[in-house]
Structures are given as C-alpha cells and as structure tokens.
Amino acid sequence: MKVSIRDLSKMTGFSPATISNALNHKKGVNRDTAQEIFRVARETGYLSANAVTKIKLLIFKKNGQIIDDTPFFQSLIEGMEEECHRLGYEMVISRADQRDEDYERQVHELLREQGTAVVVLATEMMDGDLEPYRNAPCPLVILDHWTESMEFNSVLINNADAARMITEHLLDYGHREVGYLRGAFRIKGFRSRFVGFQTALKKRKVPYREEYTVTLGTSLNGAYQDMLKYLQKKPVLPTAFFADNDMIALGAMKALQECGYQVPDDVSIVGFDDLPFSEISSPALTTLQVPNREMGKMAVRRAAELVEGIGADAVMKMQVCPKMIIRRTVKNVKGEAAGRETSGIYPVSGNKQLTAESYIRSSAT
C-alpha cells in the first residue's frame, strides 16, 4: 500500500502542510524537522513510491474570452488552494494558450513535470482540444469540461438541468414568449445550457422562437454593446430572456435600461453563475448559484485520490448542482410580482466602456 502525505503526518506528528514544504525544500521549515520528515519518507518508501507533492492548476486558454472576463474563477481557484493546503500539497498555477506556436510543446512538458499532478481548467475548450492531454503520464483531472469518450476524470457543472430549472421558473411565472441571450463564443457549457433551455420549453409545450435569440459578446461590455446594436433595430422582444451567464445578462440589462425598457416590468432576465455583483445590480439579478469553490476542492480531492491510487481504475465524471437564487429581475405576468424595483436606473453612455467596476458603481449609486 502506497504511503501518502497524510500517512507521513500521522507518523511524524507534523502537519501535512509542513511535510509538503519540507519535501519541496521551502523556507520556513526547521532543519531538524525537515531531516526527520525526509528520514521517514525514505524509510516508508514515499519518495520512491509516491513522489507527487504538487498539484498544478493548468489554465487553458483558447482566446481568453471566458477566462479573462469574469470573476467566476477566483472562488474556484481559492477552493483549490484551500484543499491543497489541507491535504499537504503545494499548489502551482500555470497557463497554456492555444494561440502560442509552441502550445503543444508547452503541454507536453507540463504534463511530464516530475512530482506533479495536474488539474486542467478547461472552460474554454471545444471538442477535440483535449487531444494533447490523452495518455498523460501524470494524475490528471479536467475541470469545467468533459468529453463523450469518457476517458478523463472530470468535475463540472450540471449545466443542462440547471438551465432547465431556471427556464421553468420563467414559465411558472407565466412567461410564454421566452428568448435566449446566446454567448457568441460557444463553449461546451453554453451549449449544454441551451439544451436545458430547450428542454424546459418542450416540456411545457412552449415553442422555441429563433427570432427571440440574440447572440452577444461574452464580456460585460461586449454583451452591452451588442445588445445596444440589436435594440437599435427596434425588434419585437419576448417577455423574458434566459442568458448563458451573468456577464451576458447584466450587459444586456444595462442596454435595455438605456433604451428605455424597464426590467422586469417590460422584460424579465435570468442569468447563470451568481457573480458577486449580480446581487447588487439594479435590479438584483435572478440567477443560478454555482458552488465554484467546492468544484475546485473536488478537483483537488480527485487528483489526490489518483496520486494515492484510490479509485484509480475508475474514470469519474462528477457534477455539481447549481442553486436558483430568486431576486428582482423576473416579473410574474400572472399578476403577482416576483419583486419590486426600488433603486433608480443609471444608464451608461453608449460610447463608454462598461466594466465590472463601472457597472457596480452605477448600480450601487
């Protein structure tokens, strides 16, 4: 049976974090303590049988349109850091940009770094992008993505069921003309959310109408600018929109308000992710809260299991289930309001860059 860092902790009486720091030659560990840890590690066969002391978060970028423009991932990374510390692993963050000429060489080297397990944050991956990660020589977990070939251990969001649930919330409130604010960069998560959106409509025998689908940029400012352009055409709008994520929902909502529409009185909107400023937007956004911190912890735990040989013969696809957060952007068209708007509306100039910071300031004024 392989010895783990936790086993060494029990044998020596030192914390998993101290043992990890000693084995990685980090400062701050007393020399006598380090010597004792190395002695026990050698005697138990840890250093030869199980030399993995680091868990590397490899952030994959296809174009940065999702990873760079949302605060969603900070809590996820913090969750990974907490779990690495608890289990006694050092956490390292690396990035691999598919646009780099030597991208595949970078991946090849990162996967072969001695003493390291890898968690790939693969939110921006499309079908086929996992090819360089096949047959990785290290313990490997894919985070926020999956493949139908079922050969990678994965931790992801139950996107389809969550999108179905919040779309049914709109339908429960009497909406029968429901539109879709579609992210222009079609990551796999967005495509699954669209499936859930359609499933809810079919279940309630409400037709999906292509003319109510609006494709918007995935950044806050991109969604805002694209929605402004769309509204300038004076389209007929549905009574409610489901948006692929909160960034899109909030950007679109500001554009609607600037063009004279009241949310939710004229148009209701729901999002996905429950970003920190969704609660303080004006009005506060009804959305789906993703346990992103727990996702990070789950990925670390699965990587640690693979290091220690626990369940290594099984490939696991683990899904987290978002929770619906009902706020003030959905009107009950059956006659009872979901919540009343009490704050003022503060439009943003059409030629002004809309950032998360400016959005928060305008919404909180």
How would you characterize this protein structure?
This protein is an alpha/beta fold. Helix content is 38%, strand content 16%. The protein has helices at 5-12, 16-23, 31-43, 46-49, 72-87, 103-111, 159-172, 188-203, 220-231, 246-258, 292-308, 356-364; strands at residues 54-61, 90-97, 116-121, 140-143, 153-157, 178-183, 213-216, 240-243, 268-270, 287-289, 317-320, 323-325. A 6-stranded parallel β-sheet has the order 2-1-3-4-5-11, with helices on both faces. Strands 7-6-8-9 form a 4-stranded parallel β-sheet, sandwiched between helices. Helix 5 (72-87) runs parallel beside helix 11, helix 7 (159-172) packs parallel to helix 8 and helix 9 crosses helix 10 (246-258). The chain starts with a helix and ends with a helix. Residues 336-353 have low confidence and may be disordered.
What's the helix and strand layout?
Layout: H1 5-12, H2 16-23, H3 31-43, H4 46-49, E1 54-61, H5 72-87, E2 90-97, H6 103-111, E3 116-121, E4 140-143, E5 153-157, H7 159-172, E6 178-183, H8 188-203, E7 213-216, H9 220-231, E8 240-243, H10 246-258, E9 268-270, E10 287-289, H11 292-308, E11 317-320, E12 323-325, H12 356-364
Parallel strand pairs: 1-2, 1-3, 3-4, 4-5, 5-11, 6-7, 6-8, 8-9
Antiparallel strand pairs: 10-12
Helix pairs in contact: 5-11, 7-8, 9-10
